[in-house]
Structure formats: C-alpha cells, structure tokens
Amino acid sequence: MESKRQQKMASLLQQELAQVLQRDLPHLFSGGLVPSISTVKVTPDLGVARVYLSLLLGTDAPERLAAIKEHTKEIRHALGKRIRNQARVVPELVFFHDDSAAYAAHMDTVLSKLDIPAPPPEDAEGDDTAGETPRPRLFK
Prior knowledge:
Elements: H1 4-24, E1 36-42, E2 48-54, H2 61-70, H3 72-83, E3 92-97, H4 100-112
Parallel strand pairs: 2-3
Antiparallel strand pairs: 1-2
Family: Belongs to the RbfA family.
Subcellular location: Cytoplasm
Protein name: Ribosome-binding factor A
C-alpha cells in the first residue's frame, strides 16, 4: 500500500513527465507520437520511480521504449528543472511498456468470438403455481 507521500510524488511526476515529454523534449520522438504516461509508482524512499508508458499506435513499441531509455538522463534533467521547487531529490526513472490497453482489446475480441447459446424459454406447463390464484403484492 502506497503512503500519501508516495501518491503525491507519483502524481506530481506523472503530470510533470507528461509536460516534459510533450513540450520540452518532443524532438526525442523524431516526428512520432509522444507516449502517454499511464502510471507512475514510486518506492517508499522516493528514490526510484517506475514509469509505465502507453505506446499504443504502431508496432515498433520495443524500439520506441529503447529510444526513451537511451534518453533517460536527458528526461530526468528536464524533469529536475520543472520540479526543483517541489521535490528535494529527483528520483531515478525506470521506464516500462504498459500493454494493458492492448490486452483489454485482445480480451474484447476473444469474448466477442464466443458462441454463447440463448437460455431456453420458460414453460408455463411445468409450473406448479399455474392453477393457483396470484398472491397480492405488498410492495411495488
């Protein structure tokens, strides 16, 4: 369970990293789409931040992640400029590919291909209460 301090730091890092990647360092992606940050998890000592990137469009996700990992030092430096007044130490950044959206899309296609038969219609003949008078309703 994350502490409030970890949650605040993770939220700050997520917002500021998004700004860094979109505004300060868009040249790192050479005209490609800037990845979105899906989650940031911070260790209890606030020394390491695990950043999960959503690299949806395109099949070159491993290459894009490798390019981001190459520029980790530059990204951390730009992040440090932005959060220098809010954080004492800029955490080490470790980037991971978040494929939960692709997994959800895959599960959606699998579930849509299932052939589930309709339930059988209910018979009035097999019902024992067919000849009885209906009970009055107490609640509507």
